[in-house]
């Protein structure tokens, strides 16, 4: 590689083809290099997966920050990513959040209609780290089927950023105590149960009851004690158990009837919920 050629960024995983809404992810090997100032137009979160030193050009001078595995940087969309030097090759998980998503959730959940994130060059935040790693695992395992999960994580991450790293020191999160009206809850549960074979998304479900995805998810959890994603997955497994016991369909056929695109994903999720494989459950090895 000549001096004028930019170093290669090896992308181990990225979400751009998975159809995620409001959130994207890149898991890459960041080379030892100097990066120019960049305006992503999105909120940018870096999760270090190794130790390294970054030097940031801030206000005309270099500022060095030593990162260890799990350290995090948050760069708001209105700040732009500064000119940066990295002292060694290091794996990074990078999250890109649409400012529109943050703004919508701020309007619905925080007593403010214009709230900004505050830059954080070096923090420890186990929740952000766990969300990032969970998204990597979900994308790696399930690809295009990870969209519903990513929507749920995007909402949770946005709420956490607003409550911990916004321009207000203590933003007042609105409380929703009553949940969905009974008729709307009945409508959405019936729709989910009748469409378990389809690729359900939070955006689709919220549109049925004429609510924004975040407002819907908040009220649904108040009503059911779980997120829409958790309820859909639980319902899929319960229907799969019924079909397995009836023995009218093969396991591959049941996989499609409960909304899984491949048998390996179905088997993995089924085992998570029941501690046994679909075959063992059908053969009578229930735990």
Keyphrases for this structure?
287 residues, alpha+beta, Jelly Rolls, Arc Repressor Mutant, subunit A, 2 domains, 6-stranded antiparallel beta sheet, 4-stranded antiparallel beta sheet
Task: Give the topology.
Layout: E1 10-14, E2 23-30, E3 34-35, E4 43-48, E5 52-58, E6 61-67, E7 71-75, E8 84-86, E9 90-97, H1 99-109, E10 120-124, H2 126-142, H3 147-165, H4 182-194, H5 202-208, H6 213-224, H7 228-246, H8 251-257, H9 263-274, H10 278-282
Antiparallel strand pairs: 1-2, 2-9, 3-8, 4-7, 4-9, 5-6, 5-8, 7-10
Would you write up a description of this structure?
- A hairpin with a 2-residue loop joins β5 (52-58) and β6.
- It is built from 10 helices and 10 strands.
- With 287 residues, it is of the alpha+beta class.
- The longest helix has 19 residues, at 147-165.
- The protein has 2 domains: 10-165, Jelly Rolls; 182-282, Arc Repressor Mutant, subunit A (Orthogonal Bundle).
Count of alpha/pi helices: 10
Strand order across the largest sheet: 1-2-9-4-7-10
CATH superfamily of the largest domain: Jelly Rolls
CATH class categorisation of the largest domain: Mainly Beta
Distance between the termini: 57 Å
How would a textbook summarize the main sheet?
6 strands, antiparallel
The SS-based structural class is: alpha+beta
CATH topology of the largest domain: Jelly Rolls
The helix-strand sequence is: EEEEEEEEEHEHHHHHHHHH
Radius of gyration, whole Å: 22 Å
The total count of strands amounts to 10
Low-confidence stretches: none
Give me the CATH architecture of the largest domain, please: Sandwich
Summed up, the domain count is 2
* Helical residue percent band: 40-55%
Strand fraction: 15-25%
Shape: globular
Task: Round the mean pLDDT to the nearest integer and report it.
Answer: 87
